[in-house]
Amino acid sequence: MKRTIDGFFKPNQKSAPPTEQSTEEPSKHETYPLSVAQFPASISDALGFAPATDGRLIDDRPDLDIVYYQPYIPKEIEKELFQFLRCELFFYRVQYNIKRGPVETQINTPRFTTVFGVDESSYFSPQGHLLDAVTKRPIPKDRYKCKPRPIPGCLDQLRKITERTTDQKFNFCLVNYYANGNDSISYHSDDERFLGSNPAIASFSLGARRDFLMKHKPPNSNQKGAIDSEKPLKLPLASGDMLVMRGPTQSNWLHSIPKRKGKDSDRGRINITFRRAMVRGGTENYYTYNVGSGGVFKWSKERQEMVAWTAGS
Ligand SMILES: O=C(O)CCC(=O)C(=O)O
Question: I want to staple 43 with a disulfide (CB 3.0 to 4.6 A). Which of 39, 204, 212, 274 is the partner?
Fold first, then answer.
């Protein structure tokens, strides 16, 4: 059913109606533990109206260049889109070890993560085969230690819309799921060399409102930490909002989603970022830290939480 513009401007619904199933084949791939459904027509059609508002430029601080859409996703589908992605995607709770001097510490990533895509040296054929970007032939078997995954159809639809809005090209989609206010991401910048200089990153928020804090890196320093005394810039990201961080932002600013108490802290939030990795190192890095080597988690409608998933469950 195609929606009309009149239908689209009907008053917002408080809660999402049950999602209709798409008639299109779900996305499947040998690297996926489960298939991923396509967007139902209700989401697909309304996405044609995105962005729902004009972006606001935030560039009033040194080295900051952000476009903030409040919202980007049409209000009519923001809840349904959140529920659809939480149900359809599979996630990981990644653990890894870091060595500080002689001491090895285990890091437990404090949120659920998943990732799709491959860097510029390769691409997926429509049949899902990884091909070399130059020769257009299957990649050598030893190109990657990880197993890159194609972006499933639903997220790829959002990627294409985002590319048109931002006039940028993206080959990676990272998804975070913050189950509640205890899940977080600490101050960091997405300034890895594999993203090239001045990378543009488009970042979507769905579900619970969470604060996005930003601090300028200490001037003339390679230090990772921010200046502690500085008051952070706070963007109260709401469901459907989208941020484009671009230009000198990543090389000069840190960002974080701190833990949250009180209002909205019992609700889940999805963050989707689209990025462009230029070289193989980016692919290895993203799969190591967003898929890892542990088990799969899937949303349970009965239990209303992410549960460990095993084949056949
Ligand atoms: O959840 C967010 O809005 C931020 C996510 C983020 O900073 C990241 O994935 O690098």
Answer: 39
In the chain, which residues have pLDDT < 70?
Answer: 1-20, 220-229
Domains and CATH numbers, the chain: 37-309 (2.60.120.590)
Strands 253-257 and 210-216: antiparallel
pLDDT of residue 312: 77
Ligand 1, atom 10, residue with closest C-alpha: 190
pLDDT for position 227: 52
Residues with CB under 6 A from ligand 1: 174, 176, 185, 190, 203, 205, 212, 255, 257, 271, 273
Residue 18 CB partners (closer than 8 Å, separation 6+): none
Token pair, residue 153, equals 């159809």
Which residues have CB under 8 Å from 304's CB, separation 6+? Answer: none
Backbone angles phi and psi of 64, in degrees to 5: -110, 130
Q: Is 255 annotated as a binding residue?
A: yes
Query: Token pair of 250, please?
Result: 């990543």
65 marked among binding-site residues: no
Give helix then strand counts, H and E, for the chain: 6, 17
Measured in angstroms, how far is the CA atom of residue 102 from the centroid of ligand 1?
Answer: 30
Ligand 1 mean position, distance from CA 13 (Å): 28
